[in-house]
Amino acid sequence: MRCFRKRSAIPVLGVLIFCLLFMNLYIEDEYVVEEDKRLKESSTHQFNPDQYVHTIRDFSNFSSSINVTYRILAGIPVSRKRFLTIGLSSVKRKKGNYLLETIKSVFEQSSYEELKEIAVVVHLAEFDLSWCESIVQDISRKFSHHIIAGRLAIIHTPVQFYPVLEGLKRNYNDPDARVKFRSKQNVDYAYLLNFCANLSDYYLMLEDDVRCSKNFLTAIKKVINSRKGSNWVTLEFSKLGFIGKLYNSYDLPRLAHFLLMFYQEMPCDWLLIHFRSLLAQKEAIRFKPSLFQHMGYYSSYKGAENKLKDDDFEEDSFDIPDNPSSILSTNMNVFENYDVHKAYSSTEEYFWAKAPSSGDFYHIVFEKPTKISKIKVCTGTEDRQNDILHHGILEVGERLVGSKRNKKCTTYLRLGDFKDGNFETNNIDRNVLFNIDCIRILVTKNQNEWLIIKSISVWTIDSNQ
Prior knowledge:
Elements: H1 12-24, H2 35-41, E1 71-74, E2 82-90, H3 99-108, H4 112-115, E3 118-124, H5 129-142, H6 144-148, E4 152-156, H7 176-196, E5 200-206, E6 210-212, H8 216-226, E7 235-236, E8 245-248, H9 252-261, H10 268-278, E9 292-294, E10 326-330, E11 351-353, E12 361-370, E13 372-379, E14 392-401, E15 408-417, E16 422-425, H11 428-431, E17 436-443, E18 451-460
Parallel strand pairs: 2-3, 2-5, 3-4
Antiparallel strand pairs: 1-4, 5-8, 6-9, 7-8, 10-12, 11-18, 12-17, 13-16, 13-18, 14-15, 14-17
């Protein structure tokens, strides 16, 4: 029996409760909360949003910024809008400090052209001001040219803008110290997101103990371009915690409010899952190889050991396919929701069809004729190693005919056969004299096994220059 649906880690009841809470944020009532009332209610163990909305003026407008005053410790807010803002939040650790190494990795792994498109904002979310001053001096000495260039800023949120952090609800039976740590962390990130909302088109969330892959920005841009026309809330470039989570900047105010509203409910990475689910992205969209690696040995919580590593991380991930925008189609019998779009990306998802017959096809039609240097197709998975394309060829075509949603090429050129379920060929532009309009995977013999197309990767000439 084939049973393949992933079981959600979030109970259905919990999701429904959060949906109701989230919908409640749009009620047009006016809330006025006095400071003494907030202090009296801070010890309650019931969910009560009134106790921590003292920084929110308009409860019904989730697109507005949070009313908080920041201290700019170094640098200035960027004068022009960049493509990507990278946000780092850091606190004093009992053991180890990786912040400077993380900043160094961001800059060293970026080319001169990439540096023009990024801004880095460091939020020193520590109430020990002497520690903050010391860190600012260290960063300023080592990265002065980036500060002067306007691509690095350091901010701090004064303690008076923080909600109550004592006597919070002990969800999951966590000890008080753990509840306080993770609740404050939610607020730290909320204020960082709030500050970064208008600095760039996209926002990347990192931790302060991360190593970056080379030219990670170029890889991210390729992924964004490949998903034009599709709706997404979060794109993930690491499988660990909240490392490498990418957002559209227009979603940052809502996410900041969301973290602040539910700051004492659960850890930040869990709240991020709820947020994207409530905005209708039900499944994670994660890309391989991972572009960011956790490098810290000691956690920021009590200096505990944290040896988590992302085994999908690659130091040099520049050779990521750019998969130009396309219309995808097939005549195979698709299993459940494993549709054609899930193969044409670097995500963990895949296309899955019931046993194909000779003549069945998977068809890719590009929006415009394209020069291609390399194509790679992988079928089957580790769990389903026999669900590969046992007999098939890959063709490229030109001269499109047909309606907008049902186009096909009139001429095809065979590039080669699938071997052990895989296909890969290079230097296509040297052997194919025409600009390519479409790619066709063609089944050449009936097979009893089902077919998984795990990934289809296309490199264009522009992506390799």
